[in-house]
Amino acid sequence: MPILMIGLAVVLAVVDQILKYVVVQNLKPVGTHVLIEGLLDFTYVENRGAAFGILSNQRWFFIIMTAILMVVILILLFRYHHHTMLTYLASALILGGGLGNMVDRVLLGYVVDYIHVSFFPPVFNFADCAVVIGTALFVIHVLFFAEKKPAGEPVLRRKR
Questions:
Q1: Residues 95-127: pLDDT tens digits?
Q2: Which end of the chain is more exposed for a tag (fewer CB within 10 A), N or C?
Q3: Domain contains 150
Q4: Dihedrals φ, ψ of 39, to 5°?
């Protein structure tokens, strides 16, 4: 199952890069295209930081942190068991989104963002959506579906 999850993550990263290519080719010259007046538009942004411009121009920090988090997720997936379809899907979403944005940072020095919802200030992209949804799925798993362990018992058990 981890191999399928990695395949899905790669597909998500490729879809993200295709969408960003289309955005750069079609939206960059015009800046903004209103889709639903007062609610949703596509706005071309070169994001050199995190959400809300936090840590702007810290390209290598984001590349290194993303790489570390991706390696940690991969180690947990291959080394420990008790994964569910939900945790596999969450992992694929986080890895795919992280990889999509990391490709931008490595190749361009910034992340291409383009989705803007009027009631939510930052502009974001497909990869950001994947990471947020994957994180939400992990939280849902932990809160509602994870096996509760008695005090003193290890939370993670290695595969044999």
A1: 999 999 999 999 999 999 999 999 988 999 999
A2: C
A3: no
A4: -135, -55
Is 158 part of any domain?
no
Give the catalytic positions in this structure: 113, 128
pLDDT digits (tens, 9 = 90+) for 12-23: 999 999 999 999
User: In the prediction, which pLDDT does 76 show?
Assistant: 87
Provide the domain limits for residue 16.
Answer: 2-145
Dihedral, CA of residue 160, residue 138, residue 88 and residue 100, to nearest 10: -120
